[in-house]
Amino acid sequence: MTRIQANLVLLLAAAIWGGGFVAQSTAMKAIGPFWFIGLRFAVATIVVLPFVWMENRKTRKPLTRRNWLSFFLIGVALFGGAATQQIGLLTTTVTNSSFITGLYVVFVPLIAVVFLRRPPHWIIWPAATTALGGIYLLSGGSFSRLTVGDFLTVVCALFWAAQITLAGSSVSETGRPLGISAMQFAVTAVAALAVAVVAEPISIADIQGALGQILYVGIFSSGLAFVLQVIGQRYTTAPQAAIFLSSEALFGASLGSLLLGETMGPLGYAGCALMFIAMLAVELVPELVRRRSVAA
Fold first, then answer.
1. Other C-beta atoms within 10 Å of 92: how many?
2. In 3D, which of 198, 195, 170 has the Cα closest to residue 184?
3. CA torsion 253→254→256→258, rounded to 10°?
4. What does the DSSP 8-state code read for residue 31?
5. Residue from 96, 50, 137, 39 nearest 260 by CA
6. Per-residue pLDDT averaged across 218-238, rounded?
7. How many angstroms separate the CA atoms of 110 and 117, rounded?
8. Are 273 and 134 spatial neighbours (Cβ–Cβ below 8 Å)?
9. Which residues form the EamA domain (predicted)?
10. Least confident of 34-43, 47-56, 71-80, 242-251
11. Which residues fall within 8 angstroms of residue 105, CB to CB, at 6 or more apart?
12. How many CA atoms lie within 13 A of 229 on its CB side?
C-alpha cells in the first residue's frame, strides 16, 4: 500500500467515526442510551471475535491474571466514556460532542503526567490552554451556556484518555490489540445491558427503530474503522496519521450540519478551530521536534 492509499484509508476510518456521532444521536429517538450502548458493543464484540481468533494463532505468549485485570479495567474506562458520551448527546449537539470528545488527544499526555509520572512535552500546556479557550468560545463566550451534555462530554474525553493510556500499556505488554478490543467491548456491553435492564424500558419495536444505527456503530465504527486504522498506520508516518484521524471531529460536525441541520455562530466555529488546532499540536509537534533532533 502506498502512503497516499494509507492516508485515504485513515481518512475513511475518520469519516466512519464521524458518522457514528450522528447515528448515536438519532438512535435515542427510538431507544434508551444504555440499551443502545449495550447492543452496539455486543455487535462490536461479535464482529471483532474472528480477528481475535487469528491474532491468538500468531501469539504464543499466554495471558497472566494481571493482563486479564488490565483488560477488564480498559473495558470499565470504555464503558465510562461510552456512557457519558451517549447521555451527553441527549442535551448537546453532534458538533459539540465530536469536537469536545476529540480533546482526549490533549488529556492523554496530562493523564500520563499525573498517574504515570512521565515528564510532559512542552506543547501540552499551551495546547491545553488553547483547548480550554476553544470550549469557552464554543459556549458563546460564557461557560454558563454550556449544557449538561457538554460537561458530560468533557468527562467522556477524560475516560477515553484513560482508556487509551491503559490500552497502550497493555498492547505493549501483551501484543494483543484485537484481544483487548474484544474484551473491552464485551465488558462495556455487559455493564450497559445490566444498567439498561434496571433503568430503561425496551421493546422489539424500540430495537427495530434503532437497528440501523446499532448495526452502523457496531459493525463499522467499532469493527471496520478499527481495522482500517491498524492497516493504514502501518504504511504512513505518525504525523500524517494524526492529521487524518483527527479529522473525525470535522466529519462529525459536517455530517451534523448536513444531516441534522445543526448550526452555530462565528464564536462556536472559532472554538471548534481552536480545539482542532490543540489536537493537532499535541499529535504533531513532539514528532516533528523528535525528527529535527534526529536529523541534527
1. 21
2. 170
3. 160
4. S
5. 96
6. 79
7. 10
8. yes
9. 7-139, 148-281
10. 242-251
11. 246, 278, 279, 282, 283
12. 20
> What's the full length of the chain, in residues?
296
Q: Which residue has the cell 504515570?
A: 116
The dihedral of CA 21, 24, 93, 197: what is its sign? Answer: negative
Quote the DSSP letter at residue 236: S
| Radius of gyration for the chain, computed over Cα atoms and rounded to the nearest angstrom | 19
Task: Quote the DSSP letter at residue 140.
Answer: T
The reported pTM is 0.86
32/210 Cα distance (integer angstroms): 10
pLDDT digits 0-9 by tens, 213-226: 999 999 998 778 87
Helix axes 65-88, 33-58, angle to 10 degrees: 150
Q: Biggest alpha carbon distance in the chain?
A: 64
Q: Which pLDDT does position 74 carry in this prediction? A: 92
In the chain, the amino acid numbered 126 is P
d(CA 56, CA 61): 9
- What SS3 class is residue 160? helix
Kindly state the average pLDDT of the residues 265-277. Answer: 87
Query: Three cell numbers at 149?
Result: 451534555
pLDDT of residue 109: 80
